[in-house]
Amino acid sequence: MEEPRGREMPPLRVAVIIGSTREGRIGDDVGRWFTKLAGGRSELELSVVDLIDFEFPVRYPDRATEEICDFTARVAGADAFVIVTPEYNRSFPASLKQAIDYAYDEWQAKPVGFVSYGHGSSGLYAVEQLRSVFTELHTVTLRNGVGINLLDEPSDARDRAAERMLDQLGWWGIALREARAARPYVS
What is the pLDDT of residues 33-75, one digit of tens each? Predict the structure, then answer.
């Protein structure tokens, strides 16, 4: 990504959110693969937000807990997001929906990319539903994503898909960061 007119641009802060908290999950492996690949880009500052590290309440509380505040602060501090999600029963996990719902304004006017995985469909049904959720939260979801069929061996195509998505994430992330700085987003 080229810096505009010699101006040094701060790195784009990208939160890679691992959405599965199931016992025996592979989301952390998928997240590590993606973070390692994206870590080669000097224009990005990556942080991994693994939902398994948060002790969210079973029911939505009257007052935000420390864990909820920590999560929403991490969302607020990011310029862009990559959601790493499995597909369970043609949807995404409840743990991810719960976490998404704890934030609202913190998501707004920021881009969201998806790395999905599953058997056969590569997690694309989960992404289809997540697009609707994130549209309601006033984000920009990326056209390109990474879909991983767990029945296939890793391939160069997976890396190329991730690179395309990161190119789009960088463009949207910078454009929207500059737009938010010039004029606060109103929903």
Answer: 999 999 999 999 999 999 999 999 999 999 999 999 999 999 9
Q: What are phi and psi of 53, to 5 degrees?
A: -85, -5
Cα–Cα distance between 130 and 145 in angstroms, integer? Answer: 12
CA distances from 182 to 30, 107, 179, 185 (A): 36, 18, 5, 9
Exposure of 104 by Cβ count < 10 A (0-12 exposed, 13-18 middle, 19+ buried)? Answer: middle
Query: 132-170: b or e for each residue (b if 16 or more CB lie within 10 Å)?
Result: ebbeebebbbbeebbbbbeeeeeeeebeebbbbbbebbb
97 with 126: CB under 8 angstroms? no
**How many residues make up the chain in this entry?**
187
pTM: 0.94
At 91, phi and psi to the nearest 5?
-150, -170
Residue pair 142/178 in contact by the 8 Å Cβ criterion: no
Residues 94, 32: Cα–Cα separation, whole Å: 22
